[in-house]
Amino acid sequence: MRRSPEERDSNMEAADASDIRIIREVQAGHREAFETLVRRYASRAHGIAMQFVQNSEDALDLSQDAFLKSFRAVDRFDTEQRFFPWFYKILKNTCLTFLKRKGLVRSFSLSAAGEGEADYQLVDEAAVPPHAMLVQGELREEFWSAYSTLSLRDREILTLRHFQEQSYQEIADTLEIPIGTVMSRLYHARRKLRRKLETHL
Amino acid sequence: MDEREQEHIQMMGFLDDELDDSARLAFVERCYADPELAAELAKYRRLNEITNSMRLREPEDFEYERFFARLSARLERRLGLTLLFLGGTLLAAGCVVALFLSSFPPLIKIGCGISLAGTILLISSVVRAWVRVRRLDRYLGVRR
Questions:
Q1: What would you report as the CA-atom Rg of chain A, rounded to the nearest whole angstrom?
Q2: Given this model, what pLDDT does residue A57 score?
Q3: Calpha distance B48→A99 (Å, rounded)
Q4: pLDDT at B81 over 50
Q5: What is the complex's ipTM, to 2 decimals?
């Protein structure tokens, strides 16, 4: 069941306020409070990391690394900001560093790239193993096979929208891009996916 | 960006229920006037339905348990190392002060000072090399 925009906004505000409360506790020295944040975001972090590395075990390791990095940096976190976009940047950077180290990604930067401009690119798309971690089914297999061939950039925006169920505003905050760019990136990603799944539409 | 592409971008907002009422109405009217756009909308709607019906496989409970156990062990180790480093630094500084305030002959003080400097140099060199090797290790991500 997908959330309505109003329900999503109110959940988002409540979650943000609760995140910030926890972070203030952690900053005040109650380090064990961080576990609550980890438990809250572990599943989302895994889902996001999966889109980058397409391997569940690596995704778990990388999300763990990202949590550790965010724990180390928590004292510098500005509690006027939202937690998730900050954590997302750390997680994405961790995943891209991992791919870069394995020689699977050519270059990347965390700065928001201009519209249509790739800020990271796979060296060899085929080098990324096929998506093996997904629920089985004929259409599903075809879907994931098509999905896996999309660029990291396209998968990223589709993941945030469809699998993380983020609103345009949340995506814009997470990726630090304007809402117009969110729409444009979604369109380009969906157009590519559509071409690959034309027979099912 | 041509007008058609602009319409498609608007279509994304329409499909995701992210347009305000006036933009939504304007888009519906354009679809009525343009059957080709309406057909495109139907295809993207179907694509959205398919995408929304997909779910990532969640890790099993035992994988999460392992995840939390490992994370908490790593956090503990980090805290332990920080305390060890702080304690070690204080201890070393205290030893140096105590040594130089003591009544040991100057030769012993100089010898201890040089040994301490050598130890610090060795430790920092090993740590630096370890960090450098880790950064440049092409096979770090390879499971052996």
A1: 17
A2: 83
A3: 29
A4: yes
A5: 0.71
Domain count, chain B: 3
Q: How far apart are CA A181 and CA A168, in angstroms?
A: 10
Interface check A71 vs B, CB under 8 A: yes
Q: Judge whether residue A145 has pLDDT over 70.
A: yes
To the question of pTM greater than 0.80 for the whole model, the response is: no
- Chosen from A190, A192, A193 to mutate, greatest number of chain B CBs within 10 A: A190
pLDDT at A97: 87
The CATH number given to A5-200 is 1.10.1740.10
Same domain, B121 and B136: yes
Please give the Cα distance from B13 to B9 (Å, whole number): 7
For B20, the domain range is 3-53
Q: How many CB atoms lie within 10 A of CB A78?
A: 7
CB contact, 8 Å: A27 with chain B? no
Clarify whether residues B98 and B109 are in a common domain. no
Chain A CB contacts of B75 below 8 Å:
31, 34, 68, 71
pLDDT at residue A28 in the model: 87
Q: What is the pLDDT of residue B52?
A: 86
Q: Do B67 and A42 touch (CB under 8 A)?
A: yes
Q: Which pLDDT score, from 0 to 100, does residue A200 have?
A: 78
In Å, how far is A139's CA from the nearest CA of chain B?
9
**B63 vs A contacts (CB less than 8 Å):** 56, 60
CB pair distance less than 8 Å for A163 and B56 = yes
Bigger pLDDT: B45 vs B129? B45
Q: How confident is the model at residue A112, as a pLDDT?
A: 43
Least confident of A168-172, B20-24, B68-72: B68-72
A184 touches chain B (CB under 8 A): yes
Helix %, strand %, coil % of chain A (to 5): 70, 5, 25
SS3 A111: coil
Q: Tally Cβ neighbours within 10 Å of residue A196.
A: 15
- Output the CA angle A37-A9-A33, nearest 5 degrees: 15
Q: Which of A42, A187, A197 sits opposite B12 (nearest CB)?
A: A187
